[in-house]
Design brief:
5-stranded antiparallel sheet, 8 helices, Rossmann fold, 34% strand, OB fold (Dihydrolipoamide Acetyltransferase, E2P), 364 residues, elongated, 20 strands, 2 domains, alpha+beta, binds adenosine-5'-triphosphate, 23% helix
Length: 364
């Protein structure tokens, strides 16, 4: 069993800096869990506490059911991959891969066999005699991964392992990591600030902000039902449109914004919004839930002026203005509209999000 459990785990650095306010969650045996959040949110601190590289100030940390608060890193059966790879420059790829096994006194023949196996898996067989300086960024990263995997630890801890790679290589390594995880099924905690990496790799994602957990769920649930404004704005590219306005009820709901009134019909959250009539709310609208429509289409809910049109191959990102309010929409290519023109937009009323402007919590 290689579960990892955190029960109210807290970290205060000696200088008084509160880095983790109290984190409680369980990582299942074989799960790939991603910790994501902006710079300084505490994700590296959390990972380093699991690794044993930082002390836990309060709370209980368990690996495989055993309390490890005071267990040294080498006795936790974990392997960590760092952002800067930390390869030994004077050793060959084969020596780097086999180093931890040699330290453990593993017999030579077994080391050779395991190094060969891992090198084949990571397509490093041709580079076994090279030193790190002679490798490409992607190859170095694969050696760092291989060096952690060769030990077959109970838990893998990865701290922004792809951030030094270019965009293309990052994408292919992401697939590689997903493939390795499927093959070995090792419990994995993966830290990143990149929401795309988090969404594509994580079976579940922990979203952190300023030392506090904002939400823990599957990528789809986080996207479809963000618990607060922070999560809503953090996940999704381009980001969710957030429109502040007063909610009115008449023939249906409507939001009176600085840009004009937007009819919202009868969204599924009607009941949750009952107490919010004539009050300020923030409406969340994903760019893909705003659709260009013909001017005479009765479903057109609002008008907006097109400012910039960004074609990105399989879709077009539209930057618009509704009165003074900026809006972003995404739509399939082939749109017949030029900057400066007025567009008519429909809203996917089944997919609206509403938040409390006072504390950012989801209303419905
Ligand atoms: P990044 O993505 O920039 O690495 P992070 O989310 O991993 O950020 P941490 O490195 O965990 O964040 O830092 C969390 C908070 O703790 C920050 O405010 C940081 O300044 C602080 N911090 C980190 N290490 C120490 C330390 N050794 N002593 C004091 N404060 C620290």
């Amino acid at each position: 069993m290689a579960t990892v459990s955190l029960d109210n785990v807290r970290k205060v650095y000696p200088d008084g800096q509160l880095a983790i306010a109290g984190a409680s969650f369980d990582i299942g045996d074989g799960e790939l869990l991603v910790l994501v959040g902006p710079s300084g949110c505490g994700k590296t601190t959390l990972l380093r506490m699991i690794a044993g590289l930082e002390t836990v100030s309060a709370g209980t940390l368990r690996i495989g059911g055993r309390v490890v608060n005071d267990v040294a890193p080498k006795d936790r059966d974990i392997a960590m991959v760092f952002q800067n790879y930390a390869l030994y420059p004077h050793m060959t790829v084969a020596e780097n891969l086999g180093f931890s096994l040699r330290l453990r006194g593993t017999p030579r023949a077994e080391i050779a066999q395991r190094v060969d196996e891992i090198a084949r898996l990571l397509e490093l067989e041709q580079r076994l005699d090279a030193r790190p300086a002679a490798l490409s960024g992607g190859q170095r990263q694969r050696v760092a991964l291989g060096r952690a995997m060769v030990r077959q630890p109970a838990v893998f801890l990865l701290d922004e392992p792809l951030s030094n790679l270019d965009a293309r290589l990052r994408q292919s390594m992401r697939v590689e990591i997903a493939r390795l995880h499927r093959r070995f099924g090792t419990t994995t905690v993966y830290v990143t600030h990149d929401q795309v990496e988090a969404m594509t790799l994580g079976q579940r994602i922990v979203v952190l902000d300023r030392g506090a957990i904002q939400q823990i769920d599957t990528p789809m649930k986080l996207y479809e039902c963000p618990a607060n404004l922070f999560v809503a704005g953090f996940l999704g590219s381009p980001a969710m449109n957030l429109l502040r306005g007063t909610l009115h009820a008449g023939d249906g709901l409507a939001l009176a914004t600085a840009g004009g009134t937007i009819p919202l019909g009868a969204p599924p959250q009607m009941d949750a919004l009952d107490g919010w009539r004539d009050r300020e709310v923030i409406l969340g609208l994903r760019p893909e839930d705003l659709h260009p429509l013909a001017a005479d289409d009765p479903a057109a809910a609002l008008e907006a002026r097109l400012e910039v049109l960004e074609p990105v191959g399989n879709e077009v990102i539209l930057h618009l203005r509704h009165g003074d309010l900026p809006l972003v929409a995404r739509t399939p290519p082939g749109i017949a509209c030029a900057p400066g023109e007025t567009m008519h937009l429909g809203i996917a009323l089944q997919r609206l999000h509403f938040f409390d402007p006072r504390d950012g919590a989801r209303i419905g």
